[in-house]
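Re: beginner question about structure tokens

> Can someone show what the tokenized structure looks like for a real chain? I only ever see the sequence side.

Sure, here's an example I had lying around. Input first:
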Amino acid sequence: MAGCFRTRKQPFFLDMKRENKKYRADKRGQSKSVPERVKRRAREEKYVEGVLQGSERGYAFLLQEGGDYYIAAGDLNGALHGDRVRAREMRSRGHSRQAAVVKILERGSQTLSGTYVSNRYGGFVTADERRFFADIFIGKDKTCGAQTGDKVAVTITKFPPRGNPEGEITEVFGRQFDRAAELKSIAYSCGVKGDFPEEVKRAAKRVSAQDVTKELSRRRDFSGELIFTIDGEDARDFDDAVSVKRDGDYFLLGVHIADVSHYVKAGEIIDKEAFDRATSVYFPEKVVPMLPESLSNGACSLVEGEYRLTLSCVMKVDGKGNVVSHELAESFIKSRARLTYTEAQRMLDGDKRSAKNRKDVAAMLADMQALYRILAKKRAERGSVDFEIPEASIFVDEKGGVTIEKRERDDAHRIIEEFMILANETVAADLFYKKLPCVYRVHDMPEEGKLTAFYDFIAGLGVSAPKKSKVSGKDFSALLERVKDKSYAKVVNTVMLRSMQKAKYSPQDIGHFGLASEHYCHFTSPIRRYPDLVVHRIVKSFLNGGAGAANRYKEQAAAAAAQSSAKELKAQEAERAVDDFYKMLYLSAHIGEEFDGVISGVTNFGLFVELENTAEGLIRIETLKGGWYDFDEKNLLLKNKKNTYRLGQKMRIRVDGVNAMTRKAEFSEA
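And the corresponding structure tokens:
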């Protein structure tokens, strides 16, 4: 079997192409000189290095900050999704930038999950990661007892110069399409770790049980003040609590964050595990936490009625939303209430029953709402881009039935969002001007090529806007305001978001384009994000030992930024894949039913249509009414002489079925 190469769509061969032509010797035994045009071409050749992002159709993209390169299947030369490669730039063949792989520098994905199919030679594993387009050959003695149709974990042990990668199965998760097995497979595929090692759990229980009485005596005491948490209905790890008081024409805003750094010391076993995970991962039926439960839901969680260690950022804010002074302090609190967003919103709406026994909380919520509106107005005026893109809340009942609802984003949610943003900005600016290390949350300006494509797209919708090579948040905000009442408003939000670069962590401060923040970091969620934990350590080191102590964290800040940026992408990938799985389960219970939706994607093979609750499916181009359609890639539409389908267009669809392998639904026009 080693001589074949099996993929989902088409075979391609792993022979490495020769980079240079050889010239035959002439009759006198002397080699002919290389033509000057060949020498010139060799001098002009451009080589690039980067990581490949594969496609299940067999081609790939070489990811580059200045714009990606398209690499055809025949030019991959054995490279696979996730590999780091060196490639030669080629003349375009229908793509703006094209290249061919000349050398594989480092193999990427070597541990994968997928579905096993046996044959007389052993079998193959088809990876859940659809972009890893080569099936993995498993020898007869490497199957770990797997049977055809099992979901498995596989480790690649060999990349032969010809043929499929070879590997061994290390774990069998269960049968294909079994919900528990599928979810384990997704998590493994994305590198999401499961349970904690026993030694980490024991260490966490040990530090959680420590007596903090002496620690309280040296900290700022906020336990007598009205401070409370506002979180989701099913939240158990409360890492932020808030308070607001009027001070003449000013507001005193307190953002009190769980002091995880008191329990999780740098370099110790819990810290090493937290660094490796870097973030908590949220699925509809479970949370995969960054910290063991004894810490995340126990000693660190700001539960109602319990003394808890905190790191507080207290800000004095004027009537225009400016922070005129601030204080960072090691502290402790005793939360007076555990509000859900629903309860808080009812109080804001004047519900007397909700506020009956909590009049002091209701009064403070009113002040919080007033401050939130001031802060939101200021942020909007400076050019912060506030996207209105619905998110889904997925619920699973006791019998496994799935319900999907559009997540509400009311004032209760916005109050907490605005307060956390202000605290993050204040801490980042504090560290910046003190010239201390920090793990900044940065968001660069959109790339020029993506900007051009975005402006071309909205022009196709009839929206005029001056094309700029560089834009500000104010430009984008003004555009969203212009289209907010149009039928295509949602799709403009989506395409604009796709035109932007991804936010990431960095030890260098370049600001945050989307929030229009000059300085920004993550400070407010150390229970679930590792960068916040490092920022806490830096702040506390400065408070207790000055700049010299804080500067010891310079290398740790850089390492945390790199690790957390990478792990965040994998966590988001896992969360999207799991959401897609649950949405597939939801739609499988509605086959044959009709729904209203909006075209959310246009491709050369069909239309993606998103329902109001965010569930999505594909209408294949061959099933569209009206005959053959041409794909307009620039304006993202399908059209013929009779019909046109474009992004944002409303459609009535019928659910025809679901594809459990791809976790996608099949729709048709109703």
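Each token stands for a local structural state, so reading them left to right follows the chain. The domain at 1-19+36-170 is CATH 2.40.50.140 (OB fold (Dihydrolipoamide Acetyltransferase, E2P)).
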